[in-house]
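INTERNAL AUDIT FORM
Audit reference: QA-55
Scope: verify that the stored structure record matches its stored sequence.
Auditor: D.O.
Record contents follow.
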Amino acid sequence: MRVDLLCSGSKGNACIIRSKETQIMIDCGSTKKYLFKALEQANVKKENNDALLITHTHTDHVSQLKHFQNAPIYSHCSIEVPDKHIIVNPFESFMIKDLKITVIGLSHDSPNTCGYIIEDGEEKLVYVTDTGFVPNVFKPLMENADYYIFESNHDVKTLMQTNRPYYVKHRIIGDTGHLCNEDSSNNLASLINTNTKEIILAHISEDGNRKEIVMDTIENTFKRKQLPMSKVQIRAAQQFEINTILGK
C-alpha cells in the first residue's frame, strides 16, 4: 500500500491510496491549481481513480468535487452528484477491487461525518480527521493498524491566544469540533500496537497550533505511557506538503 497525503488542514484536504490493483482518493479539497500540481508530483492520474471517498461536505474537503466525478463516489453524507454517488454507513465494509473499506462514524458539525479504515490484505490504514472525539464503539476496529493519518488540530492554550472570535474557539474545542493535541495523542496511545509503523498527524491548525507542540505532545504522551517511540515513525503534516507512506 502506498499513501500520499497531498494536503491537510483548513485550506484543503486530499489523500491518495494505491495498492497493487486499486487507486482511491479520500476528499478533494484545496485549490484546483495546488491539487492538480500535487497529483502530478505524486505521479497520480486522476483518471485512474477507482473511487472517491468523502468524509464530509465542508469546503476544505470537497471544493474540487466537480473534477473527480469519473469514478464512483462513496460517502456517509449527502452530496449533490450524479448517479455515481453511493451512500455508506458506519460499521459497513465494502470492497473496491483489492481494497476493503470500513466506515467509521465521527463527531463533527457537518452532518454524517466519517473516517475510513483501508485494508489491502497485508496492511491497514486508519484515516481520521475532523472530529471532536473518537467514539469508543469504533476503537476496536481501529486498533493495531500499520498506519494512522490522525487529526491533531489544535493546542488549547495556543488556540485561546489567537484573535479568533470566542464562538469559533468554542466550536473547535467542542465535541463536534476538532481533536486537540492531547486527545489525539491519548487516542493514538491506546490504539497503536506491534503492527504500527507510521503515524501522520493531520489537519493541524496554522494559527492554533505549532508543529513542535504537536510533536512534543505525542512524544511526552508516549513516554508517559511507556510506549516505544523508536519503533514508530511520527510526522506532523503541514498544510501544503505531500507526506508519503511507502508500504509493502
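Auditor finding: record pair retrieved intact. The two ends are 6 Å apart (CA to CA).
Action required: none
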